[in-house]
Amino acid sequence: MATDQKIRVRFAPSPTGFLHIGGLRTALYNYLFARRWGGTFILRIEDTDRTRTVPGGAEGIIRTLRRAGLDYDEGPDVEGQERGKYGPYVQSKRLTIYREHIYKLVTAGAAYQCFCSPEELETVRQIQIAAKQPTIYNKKCREMSSPDRAALIKDGRPHVIRLAIPEEGSTTFSDIIRKEITFENRLIDDSVLLKSDGYPTYHLASVVDDHLMNITQVIRGEEWIPSTPKHVILYRAFGWTPPEFAHLPLLLNPDRSKLSKRQMDVAVENYLDRGYLPEALINFTALLGWNPQADREVYELDELARSFNLPDVNSSGAVVNLEKLGWLNGQHLRRLSKEEYARRAVPYLEAASLITPCPGGWVNEQSGTIFSSQDLQNALSLERERVRNLGDLPEALSFIFGAVPEYDGDLLIWKDAEPARIMKGLGELAEFLELMRDWTESALEARVKAWIDEQGYDTGQILWPMRVALTGRKASPGPFEVAAVLGKERTLARLRKAVEKLS
């Protein structure tokens, strides 16, 4: 792998929809490689397949890359502007460039016009399938005489331009991840380079652009391995030196089938919207096929960039384990400061109508409770060790921000205790707490536990119904944590509501 030259790599997505996890990994590995070696990371939009291009697709990809924290050095932005001296960075704006280069290939005999109709091509394909032969073009038009070809062009016959693959020998290229790969030329298709509508295919456009943009390494998915010998042949036909290639392993479902949206959500934007942190998603994606070979799994982006080594990427498929993503997200959430954690959580609480901005902080409009910034941080700390993404916070903390939660009175009963005993204990607890002035978690815990011993109650007879009364749930943060966050007035109101349920 050559790193003694100025590294220039590109992420070149087609705007056919959302950015998926596989695309994010390709972008990330290009980004990490560029940052590791002080190179340039380029975004190029490959929108020459007009039948599959989705309006707004390019803008969506750009926004997602930005949300993920992958800033590129050259390329387009959502405002239609570009930065970099090798543009345009959108292929549909480079059609003249491709036509100039295809003319050179045809003139040199490295490409030729093909006049076969789609119906003819399909007939040949079915015959090949029946004969169990490779389904490649039969080179009918390649053997056409120059006068016949010229006559059809003059007559306005629709045609494409195909690459003339050498009919003998083999084509070999070196892959940074997979070492040397060889293809027999007789099994390589004379692929279309320029379609009848004047738009190039991926084969022509990517090779021309990679050369003109001085790309030094092409890092892409392994699905492009069969196309790479065609690209090497194209480079040679133009008289250019190919870049280095690195083909990333497939991403797999848990059952080891190829990753698909039928088995799991693969849209990056959806994970970010649900409250997975960009830092966690990047950390998770980086480890899909590569490992820094250290005794930890939690990394920030700059740490990944310092460690990334392209030859260490695995050649075998990587399983996408969403349980691991959840775990990593929890780790990154707990790395945030209280202030930053609250800043990122607020949009999710607001979207769930649990809080609304007001002078001095936020208000829950159902209960009228006002929360200062400190109140909010204290509330969020209750579930910080348990929650796995920010999108879970509204459900996890609804008992804090909303009114007194509804629950079945039977839930208040501790094991086989008599309901009357529980009711009496909660009532006396409320009276005791009403006299307390130091309303902190530590003071509440010390005083209440001492009171329980003095009154002769079992600990569970008080703390279990106290927890349920304050949260309405079996599983929740501890009662003293919750009471400290709720405050004295709301705590007493919920305890008295519980007594009413039992009376």
Secondary-structure class: alpha/beta
Order of strands, main sheet, comes to: 5-6-9
Gyration radius over CA = 32 Å
Supply the number of structural domains. 4
Domain Glutamyl/glutaminyl-tRNA synthetase class Ib catalytic: 6-327
Motif ('HIGH' region): 13-23
Function: Catalyzes the attachment of glutamate to tRNA(Glu) in a two-step reaction: glutamate is first activated by ATP to form Glu-AMP and then transferred to the acceptor end of tRNA(Glu).
Subunit structure: Monomer.
Structural commentary:
The protein is an alpha/beta fold and 503 residues long. It has 4 domains: 8-92 and 251-319, HUPs (Rossmann fold, 3-Layer(aba) Sandwich); 94-248, HUPs (Rossmann fold, 3-Layer(aba) Sandwich), CATH 3.40.50.620; 337-401, no CATH class; 409-502, Orthogonal Bundle (Arc Repressor Mutant, subunit A), CATH 1.10.10.350. It is built from 20 helices and 16 strands. It has a 3-stranded antiparallel beta sheet. A 3-stranded antiparallel beta sheet has the order 14-15-16. A hairpin with a 6-residue loop joins strand 15 and strand 16. The model has no long low-confidence stretch (mean pLDDT 94). Zn(2+) binds at residues 114, 116, 141, 143. Belongs to the class-I aminoacyl-tRNA synthetase family. Glutamate--tRNA ligase type 1 subfamily.
In short:
It is found in: Cytoplasm. With 503 residues, this protein is α/β, with parallel strands linked by helices. The chain folds into four domains: 154 residues, HUPs (Rossmann fold); 155 residues, HUPs (Rossmann fold, 3-Layer(aba) Sandwich); 65 residues, no CATH class; 94 residues, Arc Repressor Mutant, subunit A, CATH 1.10.10.350.
